[in-house]
Amino acid sequence: MTDPRQILHDVFGFSSFREGQEEIVRAVLNGEDVLAVMPTGAGKSLCYQLPTLARHGLTLVVSPLIALMRDQVAALRHFGIEAGSLNSANDADENRRVTDAVREGRMRLLYASPERLANTSATEWLARAGVNLLAIDEAHCVSQWGHDFRPEYALLGEVRRRLGGVQTIALTATADVATRGDIVARLFETEPRLFIHGFDRPNLRLAMQAKENTKRQLFGFLDRHRHESGIVYCSSRNATEKLADGLSQAGYRALPYHAGMAQGDRAKNQDIFLQEDGIVMVATIAFGMGIDKPDVRFVAHAALPKSIEAYYQEIGRAGRDGAPADTLTLYGLDDMRLRRLQIEDSDASDEQKRVERQRLNALVALCEAPRCRRQTLLAYFGETTEPCGNCDLCIDGVMSFDGTVEAQKLLSAIVRTGERFGTEHLISVLVGEDTESIRRFGHDKLKTFGVGADRSKTEWRSLLRQIYALGLVALELSEYGRWTITDQGVAVLKGQERIELRADVLMKPRERRRRRSALEAQAVVPGDDPLLMELKALRTRLAKEESVPAYVIFSDRSLIDMAAKRPTSTNAFGEIHGVGQAKLDRYADAFLAVVRDHAA
Q1: 70 Cβ neighbours under 8 A, 6+ residues apart
Q2: Structurally, what CATH architecture does the domain formed by 204-350 represent?
Q3: Which stretches of 137-252 are assigned E, i.e. beta strand?
Q4: Pick from 102-111, 200-209, 298-307, 515-524: least confident
Q5: Superfamily of domain 522-599
Q6: Domain spanning 400-506, CATH class
Q7: Whole-angstrom Cα distance, residue 404 to residue 101?
Q8: Domain range 4-196, its CATH number among 3.10.20.740, 1.20.1290.10, 3.40.50.300, 3.40.50.620
Q9: Phi and psi angles of residue 491, each rounded to the nearest 5 degrees, phi first
Q10: How many C-beta neighbours within 10 Å does residue 329 have?
Q11: What CA dihedral angle connects 401, 402, 404 and 409, to 10 degrees?
């Protein structure tokens, strides 16, 4: 056995492992089964490629796409490693090369699709060839809870048994707790070593906008990235073609990519994107899995992604080189309706449809999050972090209000119904709707029945998504989508903590446009403006006194607005961006004093 660090340097040309790689490599070399969850771009492939080179034997790699196999095999052979694949795109010469290398014991890494491995004769041949490591890429596809469950992946547990219970490493970038548990149950007889190396990609700037003028919003975003490589995801083949054409007419080097194109045209466009700079790939979700272009500087979604996991995976194709990268997601009610329709009309089981509905709800909660988007995104995967300062909500702030009472109404409805019900039942309780289900459970007799009649169902859905994003409630995906209350939610319900919620997402589109126009028209204040620096100093002092992040007091955008407008009255202060009634009552006097002293 050769030293892994020596192989890393001599074969792959790297001076050191990326975070998380070395401990996984050593666990595999110690003969342990492994389930590894690593962020996109963290170098998952190396975790099975390097151990293969450090010892004798054949590694079988399960991969979902022929194009991905092709690229991986080409890269390995470029490193001087004997690699091949079993797929329908091979010609006779390639099939002969692969079978000869396997028979003679020269083949080190052999790639195959799960469909090919479902063939008993294929796995019997591989068992005789002496496979000693099974590597399963995109392992979330194994699980019914995974966002991209594939029935053929579910057969891999049986494939593993037919190979003699061979040592196995399963890898994915997106697996929540339920998905991880399901992967373990389906693939392994005994508990594998679990490595979770974080979901955060701090170099990605996260931003989401409600749709108003999709073309204008997209072009405004892309104008900041001329001559850079990036991806724009569309929801349909037709939208892909139209946008690619429009961008080309506007002077971008834009190429379409979708499943309706001829295979040769798709491969040609993909190769251009991978090999050249300044290409905008306009694509459906058919494009992206396994794309390892390190200098993708932006990813935009012209419509709502399929799920929060799909969103994470798709934006993860940007900034793999670790340098800053930009993302923008546009969403609208029509997108949400379309996604729900796609779920209901699919051939999935009732159980899978239920899971997909909850995943979509989690994504919408991210769109309407009242705090740092990165905090909300990572919380979905079970991680916590400080406000990132690199998302639109941290940078621009939000229009907010004291939402403690609204949250308490929602939390009370959850508690009084026994933490056993989903969204629509709870909202029916709040608005006082007389339904058969409400009467059957006697929930029309609860104190909370009808206490939210002053708001529409749509508003309550948004408010529930917001308190979910804040971590006050938890959504049990594997238990019929029921809501439960967290410790933080209990504190809010008891009045021990107060919270702020977003007002702008409750506005009608016309009101949002008016507000955005007013904000865009405001004067830009330089960063070294003396008044702005004094306002920031006050914010820092207050944040330390209250033991909260500075943005909780006011965002930079609010302070810039103050420095530009220089309000001297309470009424004028109330017109500042991000100043709701609660912040007006709490902070107006202190900040107005700074403005007046500066004027004096």
Answers
A1: 85, 89
A2: 3-Layer(aba) Sandwich (3.40)
A3: 168-172, 193-196, 204-205, 208-210, 230-233
A4: 515-524
A5: HRDC domain (1.10.150.80)
A6: mainly alpha
A7: 67
A8: 3.40.50.300
A9: -65, -40
A10: 24
A11: -50
The candidate with the shortest Cα–Cα distance to 169, out of 25, 281, 270, 43, is: 25
Yes or no: say if 342 and 236 are a contact pair by the CB < 8 Å rule. no
Contact 44, 195 (CB under 8 A): no
Concatenating the DSSP letter of every residue in 444-475 gives GGSTTTTTTTTS-HHHHHHHHHHHHHTTSEEE
The sheet with strand 83-86 has its strands ordered as 83-86, 109-112, 58-62, 131-136, 168-172, 34-37, 193-196
The crossing angle, in degrees rounded to 10, of helices 404-416 and 423-431 is 110
Q: Which two tokens stand for residue 180?
A: 């991880």
Run of H or E residues at 438 = helix 436-440
Q: Which of 335, 358, 347, 378 is nearest to 233 (CA)?
A: 335
pTM for the model: 0.65
pLDDT score recorded for residue 426? 95
CATH fold match for the domains 4-196 and 204-350: yes
Locate the domains of the chain by residue range: 4-196, 204-350, 400-506, 522-599
Residue percentage of the chain with pLDDT more than 90: 38
The type of residue at 458 is: T
- Rounded Cα distance between 554 and 373, Å, is 16
User: For 247-257, what is each residue's pLDDT tens digit?
Assistant: 999 999 999 99
In this structure, are residues 36 and 169 in contact, taking their beta carbons and an 8 Å threshold?
A: yes
Q: What is residue 92's DSSP assignment?
A: H
Looking at residue 202, the DSSP 8-state letter turns out to be T
Q: Is the pLDDT of residue 521 over 50?
A: no
Residues 387-406 have pLDDT tens digits of 898 999 888 877 778 899 99
